[in-house]
Amino acid sequence: MIFLDTSAILAAANPVDMRGPDAAAAFLQLSEDGVQLLTHNYVIHEAATLIQRRLGLEPALRFLRQVDAFRTHWIDVSDHDEAVALLRERSRRGLSLTDCASFVIMRRYGITEALAFDRDFEVEGFTVYRVSRDDV
Questions:
Q1: CATH code where residue 71 lies
Q2: Are 74 and 40 in contact (CB under 8 A)?
Q3: Count of beta carbons in the 10 Å neighbourhood of residue 56
Q4: What pLDDT was estimated at residue 134?
Q5: Which burial class, exposed, middle or buried, applies to 135 when counting CB atoms under 10 A from its CB (0-12, 13-18, 19+)?
Q6: How far apart are CA 49 and CA 6, in angstroms?
Q7: Pick from 26, 57, 68, 76: CA 20 to 30 A from residue 135's CA?
Q8: Confidence check: pLDDT of 74 > 70
C-alpha cells in the first residue's frame, strides 16, 4: 500500500503541470502492479478545492467521481488532534495540517512510501515513490 498525496493528484489533474506525465506514469504502474493507494478525506478535500480553484468546477467534479479508485481513511477527532500536535511540534510555516494528518495516517497503517511531489514527506522520513516513464 502506498499513500496518495494532494501533490500527485494535482499533477495528474492539470494537463499543463510539468509533473503530470510522471504522475500519470506512476498511477499506471501502481495500477498494473495491483498496489492499493490510501489517502484520507483531508487530502480529498484539499485536492478538490485546489483543482476547482485552478482548473474549474468540472475537473474538480471529475476528480471527486474517481475517488473510489483508492482507499480513503476518514479523519476522526483523535487523528485530527494528533495532526495538530505534530504541526505544533514541527513548527514549520510551510508544513500543512493536511500533511501532518498524512504522516499520522501513514504511521498508523505502517506505510513508508508516498506518491507525492511534496518534499515534506522525505523531510519527515518517508520514501517518495518514483517511476521512470520509460518503465511504463
A1: 3.40.50.1010
A2: yes
A3: 11
A4: 56
A5: exposed
A6: 10
A7: 68
A8: yes
Q: Provide the domain count of the chain.
A: 1
- All three cell numbers of 119: 518534499
Q: Give the pLDDT confidence of 84-111 residue by residue, as tens digits.
A: 999 999 998 889 999 999 999 999 999 9
Q: How far apart, in whole angstroms, are the C-alpha atoms of residue 114 and residue 102?
A: 10
Cell of 22: 510522471
Contact 12, 24 (CB under 8 A): yes
Q: Looking at the DSSP assignment, which residues form a beta bridge with residue 113?
A: 127
CA distance 47 to 119: 17
Residue 133 confidence (pLDDT) above 60: no
Domain span holding position 37: 2-132
Q: What angle do CA 59, 121, 27 make, to 5 degrees?
A: 40
Band of residue 130 on the pLDDT scale cut at 50, 70, 90: confident
Give 24-61 as a 3 state SS string: HHHHHHHHHCCCCEEEEHHHHHHHHHHHHHHHCHHHHH
